[in-house]
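It is worth pausing here to work through a concrete case rather than discussing structure prediction in the abstract. The textbook approach is simple: state the sequence, then state the predicted structure, then interpret. We follow exactly that order.
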Amino acid sequence: MAAGIWALRQGLAAVNENDSNIGNNTLPPVFERIITELTMAGGDSDTNCAVAGSLLGTLFGYLSLPPQWVKDLTHRDWLLSKADAAIYLITGEGVPYAPDQDPDNLVDGGKGPMSKVELKAKWASFSQSCDRRTRKYWEEIEELPQYS
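Step two, the predicted structure:
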């Protein structure tokens, strides 16, 4: 939380320096500088930057993200569709979203049923893992049962 507050204060200071910066190309360097400084500070930097990035994103908007961070973002379209869905669910505005039509909301995440071969492989892996863990437990307490 402290990292997020620090980042937000840095962002607000940048906005206060020049209110005309919002929405133009001078904000991506500010966003990048703040997040980079926070990353380089170490600690739990992924969490700190996630909180700070959320707050800065709320303050500056999507267009303030450094273009080089966005252009090759894996699953960019999926992420944007989730953001659109959140906006629609919160405000009722934007691209309509139907949760019951979203494959990500299905129990299997939209992957569909497994084939018999996949199911057998998963079951075999699960059984082997249980066997290893059970044997390890019994070995640790030195009471491994002897079967005849």
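Step three, interpretation. The mean pLDDT is 85. The CA atoms of residues 123 and 129 lie 10 Å apart.
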